[in-house]
Amino acid sequence: MSDSSSSGTPISTPPPESPATMAEEPQPSTIHEGAADPHAPTGTAEDRKAAAALSSLDTQDDDATGKKETDSKALGEAMKNLRVQDAGAAEKKKTVKVEPADIALLVSELELSKAKATELLRAHDGSAVQAMTSFITPAFA
User: Fold this and answer.
1) What is the pTM of this model?
2) pLDDT value at 127 more than 90
3) Where is this chain compositionally biased, Low complexity type (predicted)?
4) Is 91 exposed, middle or buried (0-12, 13-18, 19+ CB in 10 A)?
């Protein structure tokens, strides 16, 4: 009996398959893989200047000393604008008449300083009961 596999011709193995390649769609030139999303544009020109000044602090640019001076000026202006906005928030606080007896009550019972007791009373429209209740009530409840 003769076997056809022993005829002397080697059986060839199929070539290793190349890795499956998927058809990739070309991406627009504006999209960069792994790039962070750009920040939303801010409202005013001053806000944009402040944002540019803050972002320039992150860059490692050692060759331009004039640029650093300009950036520090812009950063100073941005910080000044922040202080102006904080002052505007302080002006919005309403004036609340606080009784000296209520301050003394909070100081003696809750062992607070006069400044803290006054602040607590103003936050609760001068009501000593509400101020004491909020002070002793846990924040998570």
Assistant:
1) 0.36
2) yes
3) 1-11
4) exposed
Apex 59 CA angle, 66 and 30, nearest 5: 115
Q: What is the DSSP secondary-structure string of 65-100?
A: HHHHHHHHHHHHHHHHHHHHHHHHHHHTSPP----H
CA-closest candidate to residue 101, choices 117, 84, 123: 117
Task: Please tell me which residue, 111 or 29, carries the higher pLDDT value.
Answer: 111
| CA–CA separation, 9 and 43 (whole Å) | 80
Residue 124 · residue 105 · CB < 8 Å: no
Could you tell me the pLDDT band of residue 100, with boundaries at 50, 70 and 90? very high
Amino acid identity, position 8? G
- Quick: pLDDT tens for 52-97: 777 776 665 555 555 666 677 877 877 777 776 555 555 556 788 9
CA 81 distance to own-chain centroid: 19
pLDDT score at 76: 80
| Residues 6+ away with beta carbon under 8 Å from 74 | 49, 50, 52, 53, 56
